[in-house]
Amino acid sequence: MNEKLVKLPDPDHPISIERNPSRVVVSVAGRVIADTRNALTLREAAYSPVQYIPGDDVDFSQLERVDPPPGTLSRSGCGALQPRCRHE
Description:
This protein is mainly beta. Helix content is 0%, strand content 36%.
């Protein structure tokens, strides 16, 4: 398996973290999963911005942990969260 190159912030690869002044609402299939005015926005070089939401503003009861496929890692290095399926 190839090792992933870890880049450090520099003028050619800028990284910034700023408070998002807007309200951030995350919903799936009409259900609100997270609602916050305290999100942080991570910007890294040419990648799309990523929103980080405080855990206190997330309804974890609507999420379940899933393991990444063998041989892969999520950005955090552990399993990811996805919405729980509800059969009604």
